């Protein structure tokens, strides 16, 4: 194994361990810490795959904002007199849930050998469609190819992403208690 393969296996192992720790944690605080570590592990995986924009988003949103919001919710849900969270009914994990999660994981892992190598020149990302996007971007008079793809070719998808960000902003304001009713 080359060192980059060892690093990838270690990162993926870390992600799996933190995911299991998140699912198996007994306290809410332990769950939040494990979830934040999981998000940071995923961010490191994205850095390994040379996707720094996705890595920064995962680190900021997954580990940063989401963890902060969860902590705010925990703080608001804590009883001021006792300083404790309300007791939740104890639930056990169902074996069927583990079986379904295991089957999905195995199914996804079976597709990994079909993926092209990272940065391979013969991967679909470097095919004829790339040349079309670059040429069409110039024909449309757009200077930035990434902007052209986001606006022209993925406009509806980008609109959906904007709607999700808006809904998240509204949820943050609601959690912080700063929503206004008109």
TrEMBL record:
The keyword Transmembrane applies. Residues 123-178 form the MrpA C-terminal/MbhE domain. GO terms for cellular component: plasma membrane. Pfam families: MbhD, MbhE. Residues 14-77 form the MrpA C-terminal/MbhD domain. It is found in: Cell membrane. The chain crosses the membrane at residues 6-25, 32-49, 55-74, 95-115, 159-177. Its main location: membrane. Keywords: Cell membrane, Membrane, Transmembrane, Transmembrane helix, Transport. The keyword Cell cycle does not apply. It is a multi-pass membrane protein. It comes from the Archaea. PANTHER family: NA(+)/H(+) ANTIPORTER SUBUNIT, NA(+)_H(+) ANTIPORTER SUBUNIT A. This is Cation:proton antiporter.
């Amino acid at each position: 194994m080359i060192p980059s393969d060892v690093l990838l296996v270690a990162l993926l192992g870390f992600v799996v361990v933190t995911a299991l720790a998140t699912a198996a944690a007994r306290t809410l605080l332990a769950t939040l810490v494990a979830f934040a570590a999981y998000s940071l592990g995923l961010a490191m995986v994205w850095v390994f795959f040379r996707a720094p924009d996705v890595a920064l988003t995962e680190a900021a949103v997954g580990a940063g904002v989401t963890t902060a919001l969860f902590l705010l919710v925990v703080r608001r849900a804590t009883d001021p007199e006792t300083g404790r969270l309300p007791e939740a009914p104890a639930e056990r994990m169902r074996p069927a849930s583990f079986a379904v999660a295991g089957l999905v994981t195995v199914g996804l892992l079976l597709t990994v050998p079909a993926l092209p190598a990272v940065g391979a020149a013969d991967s679909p990302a470097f095919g004829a469609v790339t040349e079309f996007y670059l040429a069409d971007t110039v024909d449309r008079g757009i200077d930035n190819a990434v902007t052209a793809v986001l606006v022209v070719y993925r406009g509806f998808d980008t609109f959906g992403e904007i709607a999700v960000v808006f809904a998240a902003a509204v949820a943050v304001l609601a959690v912080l208690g700063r929503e206004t009713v008109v």
